[in-house]
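WARN retry 2 of 3 for item q-0093 after timeout on previous attempt; input resubmitted unchanged.
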Amino acid sequence: MTTNKKIIISHSGADNYQKALELSNKINIPMQQIETDDSICLLVTSSGLQIIAPAISKKPFELNLTKLISEFQKQQEIKKHPLSMAIGLKKKKCLIYDMTAGFIKDSCLLAYLGHKVVAIEKNPVIYEIAKSAQEKIKDTSPKLDLSIVNADSINFINKHQKPDIILIDPMFPKDKKTALVKKPMQILQAITTGENQSENNLMKAALLNATCKVIVKRPKNGPYINDKKPELQITNNQSTRFDIYLTSS
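OK item q-0093 returned
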């Protein structure tokens, strides 16, 4: 794993020492005391993983999927969400692969809508954060048909069942003219700095494997991946759009 920031693992209290040690060995990241410099710390607590990134925020960050699901439940018109519309309102339960899962917000939305979702995340640190958050919602209602795998997306989809739909959400290019992105995205960017996952290769693999459609999340004025114009587009807001490529015969 390549990153410009030092990533460490620590723990809160002696009761969490063994869990922290197991995680350290699993993802080959050193366990040591929290530093106050430009490092990022995965803090193992009794309630799950917290991220401490002093350069980004003074407060610890914890991925809260329970809160996210609660927000979905409060939205009366969740099916009018642009991603819901990109999937298709008349679609029955679909098998969907999220090739760039990150903190699995989109994966959770798709699973909440009733689809079977496989969230694929290559970075082991991001995967552990997402997996820890998922453990907390396993017994919540509604139960989500959502699984998270730590794998290279292209290798995974080439070796497993072809899905109905594939979602790709590449990291948006940094734009000095725009406001600073929210803390979760800053953390994602910090942890994955230096990783190169080719958008073009992701797109080629997705088009070959999705039996219905490929959905790509892009900056509103960003270029098409591989310069390939989509059959359909749905605008999320002033900064985002969903490009839809039909693959069914």
